[in-house]
């Protein structure tokens, strides 16, 4: 069974920069895994942020960026705002099947 | 812009069949993948499966034996059926387009 692993929790100061990562139990994550990133705040529907590694949706704030880093998919927030406190999920594609990561709870403190 | 509105029974008894439908407003079913996702209380997201306008489907292997996703292009709708539900299937179920546009979610409770 394929497992996608994210940091359970991270803390960042307002204005700071933080990188969330997404690893696959099958090995290095490449662009063929089509990494997606989502933000979910309590009681809300998940909101798509990044698709196919680094592409932003029209509504994605410029401070969010996606990349591949050290064999993992990565989401970097630069100039973190208090409203960025949320759960973040990555999603990877495995040839016909998609697997979500367990989520990273980002605290802005 | 495209919006998704979903509905279906929110309270089921064990062994019953979950049935949800998602209507697409502001666009057609062509050219995209239409997806079902669920989130158990306090837990993460789980991809259930997807379908395109031609009816080609992909299912989560862990649910494949119980899941059917279908599409009705005449009504601009796609649907989810999950048979033999148990308490483990209690979750908020979401429909989505290509993972970018999401429905509002339907909370499904399984209780005798």
Give an account of the 3D structure:
The complex is a heterodimer of chains A (109) and B (112). Chain A is mainly β. Chain A contains no helices and 11 strands. Chain A has strands at 4-6, 9-12, 17-24, 36-40, 47-51, 55-56, 64-69, 72-78, 86-93, 98-100, 104-108. In chain A, the strands form 2 sheets. In chain A, strands 2, 4, 5, 6, 9, 10 and 11 form a 7-stranded mixed sheet that branches. A 4-stranded antiparallel sheet of chain A has the order 1-3-8-7, with no helix packed on it. The radius of gyration of chain A is 13 Å and the shape is globular. In chain B, 34% of the residues are buried. In chain B, the strands form 2 sheets. In chain B, strands 2, 4, 5, 6, 9, 10 and 11 form a 7-stranded mixed sheet that branches. A 4-stranded antiparallel sheet of chain B has the order 1-3-8-7, with no helix packed on it. Chain B is an all-beta fold. Chain B is globular, with a radius of gyration of 13 Å. Chain B starts with a strand and ends with a strand. The A-B interface holds A 1, 36, 38, 45-48, 51, 57, 89, 91, 96-103 and B 44-47, 50, 58, 60-62, 94, 99-100, 102-105.
Topology:
The complex is a heterodimer of chains A (109) and B (112).
Chain A: E1 4-6, E2 9-12, E3 17-24, E4 36-40, E5 47-51, E6 55-56, E7 64-69, E8 72-78, E9 86-93, E10 98-100, E11 104-108
Parallel strand pairs in A: 2-11
Antiparallel strand pairs in A: 1-3, 3-8, 4-5, 4-9, 5-6, 7-8, 9-10, 9-11
Chain B: E1 3-8, E2 11-12, E3 18-25, E4 33-39, E5 45-52, E6 57-59, E7 67-72, E8 77-82, E9 91-97, E10 101-102, E11 106-110
Parallel strand pairs in B: 2-11
Antiparallel strand pairs in B: 1-3, 3-8, 4-5, 4-9, 5-6, 7-8, 9-10, 9-11
Structure summary:
By secondary structure, chain A is mostly beta strands. Helices cover 0% and strands 51% of the residues of chain A. Chain B has 112 residues and is mostly beta strands.
